[in-house]
Amino acid sequence: MASAPVRVRFCPSPTGNPHVGLVRTALFNWAYARRHQGTLVFRIEDTDAARDSEESYQQLLDAMRWLGFDWDEGPEVGGPHAPYRQSERMDIYRDVAQKLLDGGHAYHCYCSTEELDERREAARAAGRPSGYDGHCRELTAEQVAAYEAEGRRPIVRFRMPDTPITFDDLVRGELTFTPENVPDYGIVRANGAPLYTLVNPVDDALMEITHVLRGEDLLSSTPRQIALYGALIELGVAKAVPAFGHLPYVMGEGNKKLSKRDPQASLNLYREQGFLPEGLLNYLSLLGWSLSADRDVFSIEEMVAAFDLKDVNPNPARFDLKKCEAINGDHIRMLDPKEFAARCEPWLRAPFAPWAPEDFDEAKWAAIAPHAQTRLRMLAEITANVDFLFLPEPVFDEASWSKAMKEGSDALLRTAREKLEAADWSSAESLKEAVLAAGEAHGLKLGKAQAPVRVAVTGRTVGLPLFESLEVLGKEKTLARVDAALARLAA
């Protein structure tokens, strides 16, 4: 019998900015769907009216587009299981909850928060599991009437089976949960609002999801959902239990799980700094998976072609920002030069660029871009690397000036100016030879000789290849900036 076509889902909540852990989950689901010519369902879990926002919803859609994730069913695409926002599916959840009650799979629980806390404390003190103790499982009609007379409003609890639940996790292998560790749980609040514990598996069932790939933090809810699936199958709501795979934690600083509140977790941060979607996704794919033991840089197409859940490592993965930046830099260098120049555009215009729009020179940008492409880790770095070309005078950085302008720098600069004035300005190599000769005249190697020239012309000790930069800036402006530096040194 042929297996069912792969159907996976990505179902974020629209609360705050998307974070990289969420993106890693989306990536693995998307790659798995594309690897198996399956379907990716994009679903929005927006039942928490207090935390969800339309702004966050739009940010999710924008993030998916920016990352290059296409979805087969969901917002703006539609599909046979619409609507794909949970806030628009409340009637469905109410109907399923009632079926569970009618079928004896769920019951009303009248326990107050104070009563639950008191019994939990007593259980802990006695060394017993502190989950729900089944107090309302078998209430008589008289007990229900008494609770109702008190004005208590019940929640709905799902009745867990009294036998162990075993399943084969696609990442972690066979796992077993015993009844005492998975007690009955709430699925509908006292105000009638359905909980995640109900809506998530109900939507997966109705949308015929075959594989649930999600974070390890949700592993403890899986036996509950498997039991609920059994009830839904019995009621004719679900066809089968999906396969589950729990992806490893993404760890941040201090050996702690990367949190939404960690600065390096925000997807918007990476967009603002000029990470390429393909570079960021390449790195995030390494948080729990690898193409091969000796290769870290690859295209998203190569990842899709090779992606297999059996290769996902269950151990926590540490987010390494420096490695992320390095891999992004590799992807920058993999771009076609015209594509690189085009992707830098946002950082060459307001509000990022410190120069006046009319001072931007397209010809100079076209000439320097190939040299910039060899150096950048993030596109946002382009602004500071090329501002010397478009500002009337270079930025003044006190630290760079103090580091480069040592005793004798004025004499070196005067000699360098003479050599540069006589050099061939159509050749970066000729400019290099001029500065090299100036250094030799003062007993300095090229590295030491070029430092004062670089700071005089660009304002910084670090930047793009110096002599190519001088060639693009031009003879007149270069010599004028050396003169300005000499005047500052003489002041």
Short description, anyone?
This protein has 491 residues and is mainly α. Among the domains are: 89-247, Glutamyl-tRNA Synthetase, Domain 3 (Glutamyl-tRNA Synthetase, domain 3, Alpha-Beta Complex); 344-390, no CATH class; 398-490, Arc Repressor Mutant, subunit A. Helix content is 46%, strand content 9%.
Please explain how this structure is put together.
With 491 residues, the chain is mainly alpha-helical. Among the domains are: 89-247, Alpha-Beta Complex (Glutamyl-tRNA Synthetase, domain 3), CATH 3.90.800.10; 344-390, no CATH class; 398-490, Arc Repressor Mutant, subunit A (Orthogonal Bundle), CATH 1.10.10. Helices cover 46% and strands 9% of the residues. The chain is built from 20 helices and 11 strands. The protein has helices spanning 20-35, 54-67, 90-102, 113-125, 141-149, 196-206, 222-234, 267-272, 277-285, 300-306, 321-334, 337-344, 362-373, 382-390, 398-404, 409-421, 428-441, 446-458, 466-473, 475-490; strands at 7-10, 39-42, 106-109, 155-158, 165-169, 173-177, 185-188, 211-215, 243-247, 250-251, 317-318. The strands form 5 sheets. A 3-stranded antiparallel beta sheet has the order 3-4-7. It has a two-stranded parallel ribbon with strand order 1-2. Strand 8, helix 7 and strand 9 (243-247) form a beta-alpha-beta unit. The longest helix has 16 residues, at 20-35. The model has no long low-confidence stretch (mean pLDDT 95).
